[in-house]
Amino acid sequence: MRIATWNVNSIRSRVDRVVAFLDRHDVDVLALQETKCTDAQFPMLPFEQAGYEVAHHGLNQWNGVAVASRVGLTDVQVGFDQMPTYGEPEAIAEARALGATCDGVRVWSLYVPNGRELGHTHYAYKLDWLARLRDQGAQWLGADPQAQVALMGDWNIAPQDDDVWDMGFFEGKTHVSAPERAAFQAVVEAGFTDVVRPHAPGPGTFTYWDYTQLRFPKKQGMRIDFCLASPALASRVGGALIDREERKGKGASDHAPVIVDLD
Questions:
Q1: What's the CATH number for 2-262?
Q2: pLDDT tens digits, residue range 23-37?
Q3: C-alpha span between 79 and 256 (Å, rounded)
Q4: Per the CB 3.0–4.6 Å rule, which of 72, 110, 215, 224 could disulfide with 153?
């Protein structure tokens, strides 16, 4: 079984690339983030024609998450329990988390809040969001230590110094701050393992490159997209890769897909 995650930065702009990616890599389940559309606007037909069921949660032109599967799609859940809200004057639960069971694997497509800047209310929201996710993950594993859970998506955190092209550039910025890294580590300590890094190690192994300043050709990126797996799922991982080629060419997302193979 092959699962993957990809922040596509607008599914309507990139649906052809996504469907071609599914075929080329023979992907069984794909978690999508930043679909940037409502449920009614999601281009279901190309996925259905390719043999995939899709669960999608989108409220407007921002955020949006989905799970596409050709091996079953059941028990769909919008948001995790106690997921915090954000916004003024009326706080809402943003479209940032969607769970579904696919051939026995509980796949969560996660789009962690960006944080914007240190001290911003969105930064506090990001830390709270991650803390609630950590609590939920611990509860899932406490209820069933053998649960096969994949927390997949754009985490908007670079947990290690070599996960960014230049730590000096990011001084005083989000994504690398100590509280964010501690929040990521708390999820790991709750029982979830980064199953991609052992198969795609080293500095310069990035998943995101900003569109501006020629960041991609200059190799100035970040590793912020991850699959964190529960113990039972991590034991099945036989390989993983980051498809850097998908960041190339006209109409590419600013993220590359991350792929995990399960035995």
A1: 3.60.10.10
A2: 999 999 999 999 999
A3: 24
A4: 110
For residue 176, pLDDT over 80 is answered with: yes
Per-residue pLDDT reduced to its tens digit, 110-122: 999 999 999 999 9
Predicted TM-score (pTM) of the model is 0.98
Closest CA to 50 of 67, 72, 69, 33: 69
Closest CA to 150 of 30, 18, 22: 30
Q: Which amino acid is at 55?
A: A
Edge-to-edge strand order for the sheet containing 53-57?
A: 53-57, 65-69, 29-33, 2-7, 258-262, 237-242
Above 80 in pLDDT, residue 89? no
Query: Given the structure tokens 């389940």, which residue do they identify?
Result: 29
